[in-house]
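User: Design a sequence. Structure:
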């Protein structure tokens, strides 16, 4: 399974680690993903998804069905 949010598609970002002398080395900035069990009222079952923490925050305001339509 790829390290990617299953709802938003967020994934790792390529970036640089910059030292004090301004030497740059490549690094991979991974998305903050968590495995979460989410109840879907329309499907009437639990969904086990790997989602970003932003989605978890949005789930407190909206239902999973509203987020899936986006």
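Assistant: Done.
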């Amino acid at each position: 399974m790829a390290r990617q949010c299953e709802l938003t598609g967020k994934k790792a970002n390529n970036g640089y680690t910059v030292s004090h002398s301004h030497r740059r080395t490549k690094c991979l900035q991974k998305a903050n993903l968590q495995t979460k069990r989410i109840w879907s009222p329309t499907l009437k079952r639990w969904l086990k998804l790997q989602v970003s923490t932003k989605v978890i925050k949005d789930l407190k305001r909206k239902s999973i069905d509203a987020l899936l339509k986006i």
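Residues 53-59 form the longest helix (7 residues). The helical segments are 53-59, 64-69.
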